[in-house]
Specification:
homodimer; 355 residues; alpha/beta; Rossmann fold; 5-stranded parallel β-sheet; 49% helix; 13% strand
């Protein structure tokens, strides 16, 4: 087996493993429920999140999901305000949540420790329970993703979404928690069914788009995290200059750059945000851009060049676990079509220790 | 004069007009001071911002500048939480700030009205005092930019930064307000001096990079807004797939896509954030990418392919008014080098009325 095939197979194995990883997370439900109940009892006045990259996209998801699940107000905090400018941000009565799959991202670790020192309750969301991030926290939300060997995060991303949703549901109460856990089991079943179909469906699209170097991923609301994550996968695995935009923001300037070699990946997650996504698709098509529509409401969008619909999750808040799958698979297949090893992107290491 | 020359000249006129526009804003200082004092007296528990595009980048600036000037905690709010999902976000005791140069961006108008109905104090930041946004607000922060005829916002962007800084300084007290106003006058003088030099300096860089279609703009802290705005100018005026990243996030995946045809625009704003920007520049050079360094600390960065240093502002919080100038000028000049009319980007209208 060639080195390329090995890297590509490894990434595919981890994409395929996701439903099993979500089920493993459910083995930790009791621990997550206890953490959610404890945090809810504190009635946090504000919940601050800090992260980079894939973990930051999970924080985008949390902004919507935790507000809708348990009413928390989420603030995406600036790490440099406290770390570079010496301006304390967190205060007592607040909750500070630092996300890092490795638990060793230096500024996230420093930010969480500073927030705790300032009196906030500190929670680490990490795949490494014995990491620096976990050791400096009042509570740890486990991901239970198991070792992730590909440089590009896939199962740790969806496990982070699932863990945050479980936490928020249990913070809302035991009944909501149990219902969410049951919906997560159903979502894993749906993913397992859908993956083989999606694996086949991305191949002809990657062939047609194999010369693509620029792309926008658009969504609005709960699926904005999906757009951000798909853009990052396409960038780090297939070297596409891919940018995520809210469907509405695309009209505020970026639409000008579109042309027939600059596609748009549109995620249609729910009826509430469908009009904004439909308008973005219309504008992209008017600009001559190929459009790939994905998500559970993909079929409701007119004018798509390609469609990769995903199942409706039993709980709509879990939809982003399914909506990201076509993007993960497409990024891998596009890399192969471009002659890139998707298992070992250049210039990257698994644990990022940048300043 | 050809249509292209007209559009290009109009945009250049508006870029050059910025120092005069900032001075015009100072004619409104009394009104801005009164608003700042009134809002400070309310001691807002949380300040929510909502905007799209260029105005959203001004909100990024506010997150840093207003925390540092008057201690406010800024939350970049989700408009879809309240407008699409029916989840009230604002509450009494909070301040809600909607930014729209035209004052007619539909979801920003609806979001601000909803926040006011929920009991928050509503402030409109707009260049149109008789707009829907202004009419539904408890207070209006004027921009005094005068009519902006180019589709790409330049003077309305820097006037928004200046107005927010003046507001925050007066919220901190009359002495801080007067000092900031004086520093703004000095910043206008520095911009007037620097603009002719920068206009000449961007030309050879645009010639060398005239085939560029992908770019990252990186910064950290206060200048993150500058990176976002430069990326948007390059996208809407020169059709570059340009993405802004925090200098640290670039290492979390995006660095993989860099190569010799994919440059990095690095903004070095202050010593506090210099290590993160220097690390990003080092990684970009290791990946073979051309690097353009800008900002007042540009000279402190090693390894630049091109350098476009800007003056140190009399108050470091006003540095972003100067740091964005090379990006505005480069976007225009790059468009001309690519044969694009920078005064009339395709697929865009001045006032965006998208869903």
């Amino acid at each position: 087996m060639s080195a390329e095939a090995t890297g590509a197979e490894l990434l595919l194995d981890e994409i395929r493993e996701q439903p099993a990883a979500w089920r493993r997370l459910l083995d930790h439900e009791e621990e997550i429920a206890a953490l959610g109940q404890r945090l809810a009892a504190e009635r946090p006045s504000l919940v601050r999140f800090a992260a980079h990259g894939t973990s930051d996209h999970a924080a985008t998801y949390a902004m919507y999901a935790l507000r809708l699940l348990c009413g928390w107000t989420i603030l995406r905090d600036s790490m440099s305000l406290s770390l570079s400018y010496g301006a304390a941000t967190a205060t007592p009565g607040e909750l500070a949540v630092g996300l890092s799959q490795s638990g060793e991202t230096p500024d996230v670790v420093a930010w969480l420790h500073a927030a705790r020192a300032a009196g906030a309750t500190a929670v680490a969301v990490t795949n490494a329970g014995d990491s620096s991030l976990a050791r400096g926290a009042d509570g740890v939300l486990p991901l239970a993703a198991g070792p992730e060997r590909s440089i590009a995060a896939t199962k740790t991303y969806t496990c982070t979404l699932a863990a945050l949703a479980l936490l928020g549901a249990h913070a809302a109460g035991p009944e909501r928690g149990a219902a969410l856990a049951s919906a997560l089991r159903g979502t894993a079943d749906l993913a397992e069914e859908a993956l083989p179909r999606l694996e086949r469906a991305v191949e002809p699209i990657a062939d047609v788009l194999s010369s693509v170097e620029r792309l926008y991923a658009v969504a609005r609301g709960l699926e904005l995290a999906t757009a951000a994550e798909v853009a990052l996968k396409l960038t780090e695995i297939a070297y596409v200059a891919a940018k995520a935009l809210t469907a509405t923001s695309m009209a505020h300037g970026p639409v000008a750059a579109l042309d027939r070699s600059f596609p748009v990946w549109a995620v249609a997650g729910d009826e509430a945000t469908l009009p904004a996504v439909a308008e973005a698709v219309r504008r992209a098509r008017d600009a001559g851009a190929p459009v790939i529509t994905t998500g559970p409401e993909a079929a409701a969008l007119d004018g798509a060049t390609f469609t990769l619909a995903t199942p409706h999750a039993p709980d709509p808040l879990l939809s982003p676990l399914l909506s990201v799958l076509p993007g993960q698979l497409f990024a891998r297949t596009l890399a192969l079509a471009k002659g890139i090893d998707p298992g070992a992107p250049r210039h990257l290491r698994k644990v990022t220790l940048a300043a």
